[in-house]
Amino acid sequence: MFPSDLELPAMPASAVRETNRGTLERLAHDLILIGNDQLSAADSYRLFGHDELDRSFWGYGVEAARMDDSREILVLMRRDEEATLGKTLRWMPLSKLYTRKQALLFYEVTDTEGPTEEAMHEILEVFRDVFEFAVADNWSYYKRLEFYYAFPFEELTSKEAVMAFRPILFGCSAFAEFEHTFPECE
């Protein structure tokens, strides 16, 4: 559940969000590319950017939207602010976000707190499994935002941590009807 003072991310009127099925299909496609070493999980989903006050941040791209009136793609970013501000969800233009490699090249900044490539790959596997449930259960946009907001990215920096978290997440009452077998940690 959201804190009562959390502002939901504003979205331009001409933007078209992903559906549950669209998110599931994107994740499944990206996981195939990641498995074939054609895409980096960490470079595709852990992104660097600047907010409206030109403060730099690292965050996680959790959902996409396309502008109807242009070719612009928006990314819903989940980021963890300084301890005083907490977590935020914001829609940002993809053109204003950078991969880890681009952030190092253009801004000489390194992501020292984000997950390893293996951990980000496992997080995406978890997201795919969650969205299988979201499609079957017809999650609302608000329900997806709750999930993105509550997901403990900051605690899941290793593959082992993600694998340990998997049965905890799917053991929650929200997933009571979801039948899933969990892969063994190597």
Report on this model:
This protein is an alpha+beta fold. 39% of the residues lie in helices and 20% in strands. It is built from 6 helices and 6 strands, in the order E-H-H-E-E-E-E-E-H-H-H-H. The chain has helices spanning 20-35, 41-45, 100-107, 117-137, 141-150, 159-170, and strands spanning 15-17, 46-50, 56-67, 73-80, 87-93, 97-98. Strands 1, 2, 3, 4, 5 and 6 form a 6-stranded antiparallel beta sheet that branches. A hairpin with a 5-residue loop joins strand 3 and strand 4 (73-80). The longest helix is centred in the last third of the chain and has 21 residues, at 117-137. It is globular. The model has no long low-confidence stretch (mean pLDDT 86).
Briefly say what this structure is.
The protein has 186 residues and is α+β, with helices and mostly antiparallel strands.
Instruction: Give the quaternary arrangement of the chains.
Output: single chain
Order of helix and strand elements from N to C terminus: EHHEEEEEHHHH
Low-confidence segments: none
Radius of gyration: 16 Å
Strand pairing plus helix content: what structural class? alpha+beta
Strand content: 15-25%
Write down how many β-strands occur, each being a DSSP E stretch of 2 or more residues.
Answer: 6
Could you tell me how far the N terminus lies from the C terminus, measured between alpha carbons in angstroms? 34 Å
In one word, what is the shape? globular
> Given the structure, what is the number of helices?
6
Mean pLDDT: 86
Helix content: 25-40%
